[in-house]
DNA sequence: TACAATGTGTGTGGTAGCGCACATACCGAA
DNA sequence: TTCGGTATGTGCGCTACCACACACATTGTA
C-alpha cells in the first residue's frame, strides 16, 4: 500500500488539465500533516503552499490576550497559502493542522509561475477557490455575531465532516472551543445536548456523528450557505461569467 | 466646479500605469452613489464593478430572519464587485451605500480584460486589494466573537473615518446598529459613553469625532490590524513576493 | 402652527455565555 | 496497581446583551 495518498485526491490538483498536472508533478512533495502542527504563524513569509489530501487545516487568528477564533477551514477541496499568489506573501492569521493526515507541498514560486501561465486553468481554479474561502470567512463573521454555541458547534462539525472520509472526527472539546472562540464548558454543554438527542456520540476526543440530517437541522443557515456556494464555485463546468472562455479538461488521473 | 470628482481619487485607478489608465478611461462612467442605495443584492449577477471616489459601500449579509451583519467596508481605497474577476460572478452578500458620494462604474467584461492583460498591473492591484478585503473580513469575524459593542463602535467609526474627507460622518444609530448586527439601544448606550468622554459629538444622525487618538485607544486591536495590513498591501512598491517582478509606475497626477 | 416622521434616551426583566472552582472519569505508563 | 495526566461534567455568581415598551426631542411638511 502506498505511503502517501495520490495528489489527485486534492480537488484543485485533480481539476487541472493533464498538461498542467505534468508541469506541477515534479515539484509536488508529499508531507506529513500531524495534528496540532503550525504550518505558518501570523506574519510569516510563506515559502510553500499546501494541497491537503486527507487532513484539515484551520486558519485562525490569535489575539494579543491569547484568545483565538477560527476564520476558515481548509481540506482536500482547497489549498493553504493563498497569500502567495494574492501578493501579500503573509497574513495576520495562523494556519494549524486540526485533523492529521497528509498534503502535497509546492514551492511558492512554482505556484506563481503556474498562476501566471498562459493556460489560465490554475488561475481560474485558485481564484474561484479563494472566493469560496471568502464566503466562508464572511459567514463565520455572521455566525459569530448571531448564532448560539449549539448552532455553531453543528456548523463546525458539519464543515469538518465534509472534509473527512467517514463520520468520525478526533477532536477534544478544548480544541473545538479554541476554534469557535468560546469556553470549553460551553462546548461541553452543547455537545452534551447533541449526545442526549442521539445525534452524536463522543468519547475522550472522538466524535461520531450518528444522525447527520438532524445535525443539519440543528445547525444555523450558515453551513448551508457555505456549502452551496462552495459547490457552485467548484462545479466542474464554471458558468460563462468566468474569466477566459477556454473550458477545462475533465480531470485525468 | 466639476460635477464629478476625478477617477484618480480612487486609489486603485490612481495606482495604475498611464497606459492602463488610458485603456480604462473611455469605459469609466461616473455614477451618483446615494445613501442607502443597494448596489447589488445577494446572488445578483454582477454587470459592473464600482470604484468609489468619495462614498462608502458596505458589504453586508442579511439572514433569513432579517437580521444583518456587515462583512466589510469599501471606500476610495478599493472597489466593489471582486466576484467579477474571482470567477463566481455573484456573492451571498449585499452591497449597500453607507455614505453618499460618487463612484466610477466599469463594465465587468472590461475589468476582466484588464485583469488578464499582458501588463499585470491591474491584476496585481486587484489581488492585493482582495487580500486586504479578506483581512478585514477575518478581523470582523474575530471582533464579532470577542469584543464589546463599545470597542466595535470605535473600530467601525475609525474605519469609516479613514474613507471620508473630514472628521464627520452622517449615520443614524439605527443604521450603525444594522451594520454591527446589534440592537439600536446598544449603539445609543455606547455612543452616549463616547460623548460623555468627549471623544465624539453627535446630533440626529451626524457624528463628529473630536478626539481621534482617544478613539483609537478605546477601540479593540482589530482596527489597527486591518489598518496596518491594508497599508502594507497597498504600499506603492510591492515587496518582492509579488507575482511579476515588473515594477509599477508611480501614480500619475 | 399643528402634526407626523424620525431619531434618541431610559427602564425592566430575561438569558446566553463568561470566569472560576471543583468533582469525576478515563487512560496510559511506571 | 497505583498514579498522574488528560478529558469531561457541574455549579455559582456575574455581565453584556437582548426583547420589548415607552417617553421625549427634533425636524420637515401641511
TrEMBL record, chains A, B:
Region named Disordered: 234-253
Keyword Glycoprotein: no
One Pfam short name: HTH_Crp_2
Origin superkingdom: Bacteria
Domain Cyclic nucleotide-binding: 12-99
HTH crp-type domain location: 147-213
Keyword field contains Transcription: yes
CDD domains per the UniProt record, alphabetical: CAP_ED
GO MF annotation, one: DNA-binding transcription factor activity
GO cellular component: cytosol
InterPro entries (alphabetical): cNMP-bd_dom, cNMP-bd_dom_sf, Env_Response_Regulators, HTH_CRP, RmlC-like_jellyroll, WH_DNA-bd_sf
Keywords: DNA-binding, Transcription, Transcription regulation
PANTHER family attached to this UniProt entry: CRP FAMILY TRANSCRIPTIONAL REGULATORY PROTEIN, HTH-TYPE TRANSCRIPTIONAL REGULATOR ARCR
Name of this chain's protein: Crp/Fnr family transcriptional regulator
Amino acid at each position: 500500500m502506498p505511503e502517501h495518498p495520490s495528489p489527485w485526491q486534492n480537488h484543485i490538483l485533480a481539476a487541472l488539465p493533464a498538461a498542467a498536472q505534468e508541469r506541477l508533478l515534479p515539484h509536488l512533495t508529499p508531507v506529513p500533516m500531524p495534528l496540532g502542527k503550525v504550518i505558518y504563524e501570523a506574519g510569516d513569509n510563506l515559502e510553500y503552499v499546501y494541497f491537503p489530501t486527507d487532513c484539515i487545516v484551520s486558519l485562525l487568528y490569535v489575539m494579543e490576550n491569547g484568545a483565538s477564533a477560527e476564520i476558515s477551514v481548509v481540506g482536500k477541496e482547497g489549498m493553504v497559502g493563498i497569500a502567495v499568489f494574492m501578493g501579500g506573501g503573509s497574513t495576520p492569521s495562523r494556519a494549524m493542522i486540526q485533523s492529521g493526515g497528509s498534503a502535497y507541498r509546492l514551492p511558492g514560486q512554482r505556484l506563481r509561475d503556474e498562476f501566471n501561465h498562459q493556460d489560465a486553468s490554475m488561475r481560474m481554479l485558485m481564484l474561484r477557490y479563494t472566493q469560496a474561502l471568502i464566503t466562508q470567512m464572511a459567514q463565520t463573521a455572521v455566525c459569530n455575531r448571531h448564532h448560539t454555541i449549539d448552532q455553531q458547534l453543528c456548523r463546525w462539525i458539519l464543515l469538518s465532516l465534509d472534509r473527512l472520509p467517514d463520520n468520525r472526527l478526533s477532536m477534544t472539546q478544548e480544541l473545538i472551543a479554541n476554534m469557535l472562540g468560546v469556553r470549553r464548558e460551553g462546548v461541553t454543554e452543547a455537545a452534551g445536548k447533541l449526545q442526549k438527542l442521539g445525534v452524536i456520540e463522543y468519547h475522550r476526543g472522538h466524535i461520531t456523528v450518528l444522525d447527520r440530517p438532524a445535525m443539519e437541522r440543528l445547525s444555523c443557515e450558515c453551513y448551508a450557505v457555505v456549502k452551496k456556494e462552495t459547490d457552485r464555485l467548484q462545479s466542474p463546468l464554471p458558468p460563462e461569467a468566468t474569466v477566459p472562455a477556454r473550458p477545462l479538461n475533465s480531470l485525468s488521473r
